[in-house]
């Protein structure tokens, strides 16, 4: 028969073990930071250039649209938005609607810092600018300065007054 008394661990040893597990768990947790940035954009200055068909045909396959606009963050920082859009018009035979596909690169310049956005969108062709009430989501592909290493997405909407709102969800 075993007559040895069972020993209980010292409370300080238990506390130290629990504390080390908590610290180790926190170190293994998600350390990615995210933040939201809202940028307001004034009406853009735009210019459009027709693309020339490579086969010598008379119907343009699309256009190159360039634009420039003043931007302001919610905390009052001002800057400039430069962008290019390559557009292509595609008729939809089922309903005779014409949709425009746009592949865009947008550079949001805020002082010496930049956010770079790229991506494609599709929406009904009505005007050179997107229609109010529609949204576009594009990828944030990088940045400089305060936005170095930033990734995420930006959702853009056009307001009734011709201005735009860009809501960034940034990671990094």
Describe the structure.
With 172 residues, this protein is mainly beta. It has one helix and nine strands; from the N terminus they run αβββββββββ. It has one domain: Allene oxide cyclase-like (AOC barrel-like, Beta Barrel), CATH 2.40.480. Helices cover 10% and strands 53% of the residues. An eight-stranded antiparallel barrel has the order 1-3-4-5-6-7-8-9. A hairpin with a 5-residue loop joins strand 8 and strand 9. It starts with 10 loop residues before the first helix and ends with a strand. Mean pLDDT is 81; it is low at 13-29.
Q: Could you name the key traits of this structure?
A:
172 residues, mainly beta, elongated
Structure described in brief:
By secondary structure, the chain is mainly beta. The protein is built from one helix and nine strands.
């Amino acid at each position: 028969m075993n007559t040895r008394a069972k020993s209980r661990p010292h409370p300080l040893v238990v506390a130290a073990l629990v504390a080390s597990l908590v610290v180790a768990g926190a170190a293994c947790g998600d350390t990615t930071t995210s933040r939201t940035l809202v940028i307001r954009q004034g009406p853009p200055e735009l210019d459009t250039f027709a693309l020339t068909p490579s086969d010598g045909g008379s119907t343009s396959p699309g256009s190159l649209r360039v634009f420039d606009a003043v931007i302001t963050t919610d905390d009052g920082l001002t800057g400039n938005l430069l962008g290019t859009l390559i557009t292509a018009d595609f008729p939809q035979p089922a309903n005779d609607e014409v949709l425009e596909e746009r592949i865009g690169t947008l550079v949001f310049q805020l002082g010496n810092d930049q956010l770079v956005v790229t991506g494609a969108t599709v929406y009904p062709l009505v005007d050179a600018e997107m229609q109010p009430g529609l949204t576009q989501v594009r990828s944030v592909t990088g940045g400089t300065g305060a936005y170095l290493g930033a990734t995420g997405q930006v959702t853009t909407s056009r307001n009734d007054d011709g201005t735009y709102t860009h809501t960034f969800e940034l990671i990094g």
